[in-house]
Write a structure and sequence with these properties.
The protein is mostly helical and 192 residues long. The chain has one domain: Tetracycline Repressor, domain 2. α1 packs across α4, α5 packs antiparallel against α7 and α5 packs antiparallel against α10. GO terms for molecular function: DNA-binding transcription factor activity; transcription cis-regulatory region binding. InterPro entries: Homeodomain-like_sf, HTH-type_TetR-like_transc_reg, HTH_TetR, Tet_transcr_reg_TetR-rel_C_sf. This is TetR/AcrR family transcriptional regulator. Keywords: DNA-binding, Transcription, Transcription regulation.
Length: 192
Amino acid sequence: MEQPATFATTRRTELFDALVALFLADGFAHLTLDTIAARLRCSKSTLYTLAGSKEQLVTAATVHFFKRATATVEAQVAAAGGARERITTYLTAVGKALAVASDRFMTDLDHFTPAREVYERNTRIAARRVQELIDEGVAAGEFRGVHAAFAADLAATMMVRIQQGGVRARTGLDDGAAYRELAAVLTHGISV
């Protein structure tokens, strides 16, 4: 029999997963707590166990999304071999994780400062991760001696442009294809 604390944690995770799916598909700015509760088939009081207000709920759901995405991305990177494959896997997995976000969600995110700050913080973390992967490749002799921080900043800038729709508008590439191209340009540009 499942312990009460385990059940509560499982239920909380399920609610956050459903909340994230709802927000990614439909955005969040136009949704009321009543609408969210109805769509998740729970009470408003249940939502208040997750966060004290709609704004806090949106922020918490955004954090939950990025934690889940990071775990998925890092699991894929851990299974990859070699620096080039690890960077390609990382950027492709990030693109796949973010590709599920609707345009409406991205617009709402851009206009809601606390959630946008979560996104921006995660982009900075991703840039640092790309820098680490480049440094590992340089140390292993797979990449030429490059300024890893610059290469990571280049990747982060493109990641933001991809997610804001700028790359799609200018090139016609969907997010997944844009991340694959970024990985190819980055890894070929720094190869020995």
